[in-house]
Design brief:
Number of helices: 8
Strand content: 25-35%
Largest sheet: 11 strands, mixed
Radius of gyration: 16 Å
Number of domains: 1
Structural class: alpha/beta
CATH superfamily: LigB-like
């Protein structure tokens, strides 16, 4: 029987179509599977649609994929809302958004329906707000067998060499668990990373939950899949461990 998580506190995983980013995301979930089984997963994803609140959580119900239903942990969602001044309960932000849902089948494949989750969607991705979400989630997860996942792709639609250079700078900052450097790098280099807020929140929460190490597991681009390097999207898998 799979035991509790021993080391893993957080992950960063891409969320493009599985044919593009799936092989990269698989590295995060492979390492997670080696560590154990969470009872609870909080998934942060960017809001691509512009609908709903700036920071939005769903607090009840289930999310359904072809692999079955995953129940939202209402008690934890309510605790997160209480601990944060910014997060709203808002289903609208999640209705047409893909960034969170594409992470769920990976978890279901490994753990079935034996875990609960909390989805939080980021339209606001400034440093202060993202840190506050991370702190609130860390307080809600303390002493629980849980982890946080940031769903994000990296640079969008730039030539391979430029995308790799920008993404490497962000990855280096994340590897050092330096969320402020992640934000300043995204700003200074104009990195079109869609989920930098979720990444910042994940690093913040991971550190509060005891993470000491950040590690890049895999980095590829869409060009590595289709052979066109003129305008690629970058994908990174990272893990944060105690």
């Amino acid at each position: 029987m799979v035991g509790r998580l021993k080391y893993t506190v957080g992950l960063i995983c891409p969320h493009a179509g599985y044919m593009y980013s799936g092989p990269v995301a698989a590295h995060s979930y492979y390492h997670l599977a080696l560590d154990g089984k969470p009872d609870l997963v909080v998934v942060f994803g960017p809001n691509h649609t512009g609908s709903g609140s700036g920071l939005a959580v769903m607090r009840e119900g289930v999310w359904r994929t072809p692999l079955g239903d995953i129940e939202i942990d209402t008690a934890t969602a309510d605790t997160i809302v209480r601990e944060s001044r910014l997060i709203d309960v808002d289903d609208v932000a999640h209705m047409r958004e893909h960034s969170i849902e594409v992470q769920l089948p990976w978890l279901q494949y490994m753990y079935g329906s034996g875990f609960k989750f909390v989805p939080i969607c980021f339209l606001m991705q400034d440093l202060q707000s993202s840190r506050e979400v991370g702190m609130a989630v860390a307080k809600a997860l303390r002493d629980k067998n849980a982890l946080v996942i940031a769903s994000s792709d990296m640079t969008h639609y730039e030539p391979q060499k430029g995308a790799e250079k920008k993404d490497k700078a962000v990855i280096e900052a994340a590897s050092k668990l330096d969320e402020e450097k992640v934000y300043s790098t995204v700003e200074a280099l104009q990195v079109s990373m869609c989920g930098y807020g979720p990444a910042i929140a994940t690093i913040t929460a991971a550190k509060e939950l005891g993470a000491k190490n950040g590690k890049l597991l895999c980095y590829k681009t869409s060009g590595d899949v289709v052979g066109d390097y003129s305008a690629v999207v970058g994908y990174a898998s990272m893990m944060f461990t105690r």
